[in-house]
Amino acid sequence: MPPRWGVFTTATEEIRKMKKPIVTRVLATSALATSALAIALAAPAWAAEKYFVTVDTVGNCSIVQSVSAGKEAIGNADGYASMEGAKAYLDEIKDDKCKGVVVG
């Protein structure tokens, strides 16, 4: 005997009710994962660049973004927020503390 219309409709509705939370959870998880990925990719853009005025072992001064071996940070040891700030400091001290200025 074929199923009655009311029984079939009720079963279909029950299946829909069960699927809805699953779909909602999957979409919510996907949206959360997408948001987290977007934030992770944008994070380097938020990171503030720092500029350091350094002097090497020979006495040459330069402006760099990270202090490497053989160089010593002078001026603001925490770095300057802008290239202009670092250049201004270098202009002040280059005649007194630097044998030369390395650009590059």
What does this structure look like?
With 104 residues, the chain is α+β, with helices and mostly antiparallel strands. The protein has 2 domains: 1-46; 52-101, no CATH class. The protein contains 2 helices and 4 strands, in the order αβββαβ. It has helices at 5-46, 83-97, and strands spanning 52-56, 60-64, 71-74, 100-101. The protein has a 4-stranded mixed sheet with strand order 3-1-2-4, covered by helices on one side. It is rod-shaped, with a radius of gyration of 31 Å. The protein starts with a helix and ends with a strand.
Number of strands: 4
Structural class, from secondary structure content? alpha+beta
Radius of gyration: 31 Å
Helix content: 40-55%
Keywords:
alpha+beta, 4 strands, 2 domains, 104 residues
Short overview:
By secondary structure, the protein is α+β, with helices and mostly antiparallel strands.
Layout of strands and helices, then pairs:
Layout: H1 5-46, E1 52-56, E2 60-64, E3 71-74, H2 83-97, E4 100-101
Parallel strand pairs: 2-4
Antiparallel strand pairs: 1-2, 1-3
